[in-house]
Amino acid sequence: MLKANYHTHTKLCNHAVGMPEDYILKAIELGFKEIGISDHGHVPAAFMSEEEYKNNWLERLMSLEDYYDIYLPSLDEAIKKYGDKIKIYKGLEVEYIEGHEEYYIGLKANLDYLNLGIHFFESNGHFLNSYDDVNYKTIYDYANVAIKGIKSGLYKTLVHPDLFFFSYKDENGCHTFDKHCEKVSKMIIEEAIKNDVYLEINANGPSNSRRFGDSSDWLYPRKEFWKIASSYKDLKILIGADAHNPNNLYNDDVKAVIKFAKDLGLKVQDFMKI
Q1: Angle, CA of 256, 257 and 261, to the nearest 5°
Q2: Which residues, at least 6 apart from 15, have a Cβ–Cβ distance to it below 8 Å?
């Protein structure tokens, strides 16, 4: 059973349900000691071309107006109502785009933490999608964004760090965990250790794998990645529900991921130190 979750979304991101209070009440019901609300943060349209903005589905994310006028006030209200029953943290899941650190610092000023989620990455001057555009060449651009984000000091956790495998294709166009995936995995893991950043085993991965995969193997969390991670004893690991519905804070996929971590001998932290 989990004692905490720090990867939780709300209806403001336009692809989830519920508001902070709904997740907090469910967490209290489950006996959680802590919960962090970390909806998808806004990405300004000026950061990339109009076509890239659409291709990376960024029009659907929470607006800055909703962030300041609804999201933050709803978190403050929930903390006042339920802060004596459970520890509540204010967060966001945001991307990392080099050169826009001041923007992220501004967001973080109102929060307890930021999660780094790499749903897109810059490659040769263009923004590619992590769900569609990763191959044996671009995987190193994904890794470069992950490493720069980790080193920036802005983030507590890199969520779904193995998302690169979702669409990965090797030199022969095959979907296989090869030497490039192994090299990138080690690069990300070692940088996380150096910078005291958590890596997350993502419990929304099994659901996405069933929807988009063509085998019984999970696209993420990927066994090969986490088997490599198991050899790094100083790595700090969290399980994140990546809940887009309050009922997903502790469901069959979360239970399966807990077993997955146990079977691989991974040492999972109960709480994220904030």
Answers
A1: 120
A2: 9, 60, 244
Residue type, 102: E
Residue 265, burial from CB neighbour count under 10 angstroms (0-12, 13-18, 19+)? exposed
pLDDT of residue 116: 98
Q: pLDDT, tens digit, for every residue of 81-111?
A: 999 999 999 999 999 999 999 999 999 999 9
Q: How far apart are CA 120 and CA 146, in angstroms?
A: 11
**Placement of tokens 């077993």 in the chain:** 259
Give the position of tokens 């996405």: 208
Over its C-alpha atoms, the chain yields an Rg (Å, rounded) of 18
Among 58, 108, 113, 69, residue whose Cα is nearest residue 87: 113
Residue with tokens 């690169």: 164
Look up residue 268 and give its DSSP letter: B
Q: What token pair was written down for 41?
A: 């943060």
Angle at 272 between CA 79 and CA 188, to 5 degrees: 135
Contacts of 215 (CB under 8 A, 6+ apart): none
The pLDDT value given to residue 216: 82
- Other Cβ atoms less than 10 A from the Cβ of 80: the count is 10
